[in-house]
Amino acid sequence: MLPLERRKRIKKLILERKNLRISDLSKEFGVSEMTIHRDVKALEEEGVLTKTFGGISLVETDVNEQQKNHCTYCSRAINEKLAYRLILTNNNIEVTCCAHCGLLRQQQLGNQVIQAICSDFLRQTTISAPLAWYVTDTTLHMGCCHPQILTFEWREHAEKFVKGFGGKIYSYEDITEVLLKKMSGTFQCKNH
Ligand SMILES: [Zn+2]
Ligand SMILES: [Zn+2]
């Protein structure tokens, strides 16, 4: 069975049963627990399920549709292309409209956040936020929050983007501080 097919089936099972054990899945599909762990990781990144001790649980969507499709920080409608997700210690997932709100919300929640996920602006691949590159001050405006922050998986792509649309590239370590300074109006461009 192809991994994609197996993941689809696991997804179906978890929706039906809500809780599953890794060892049972391994037996059911006739693959190693290691393989199941890899499948689970992929589904976890999709926000479908969450890992528990020795097993997995369905991520309960107890929030109503309204909340689900709106940024938890600014209430703006979610544009999947820009969305930034926060996975919390209580297994809840918060979706924010863009990296701007995501980073601010993350700052607010502190160590309640176990994982942050955003997507590559060009390829729409999922990236773990600490590994992403953040572009500010570009001339391309997406109509979300200001100051605007776009996320890229590869620095090389961010550089090419900046060549075309202008802007500056920051790492995860620097971007929150840059954003906070920009918002408080004390940010000064190094070239000035
Ligand atoms: Zn927002
Ligand atoms: Zn936004």
Brief digest:
The protein is α+β, with helices and mostly antiparallel strands and 192 residues long.
Helix content: 25-40%
**Largest sheet, described in full?**
4 strands, antiparallel
> Low-confidence stretches at least 5 residues in length (pLDDT < 50)?
none
H/E order of the elements?
A: HEHHEEHEEHEEEEHEH
Number of domains: 2
Give the strand order, joined by hyphens, for the main sheet: 5-4-6-7
* Number of separate helices: 7
Strand content: 15-25%
Task: Give the integer mean of the pLDDT values.
Answer: 90
What form results from the Cα inertia axes? Answer: elongated
Question: Could you characterize what this model shows?
Answer:
This protein is of the alpha+beta class. 39% of the residues lie in helices and 21% in strands. It has seven helices and ten strands. The longest helix is centred in the first third of the chain and has 15 residues. The site of one zinc ion has 7 residues, from helix 5. The site of one zinc ion (ZN) has 8 residues, from loops.
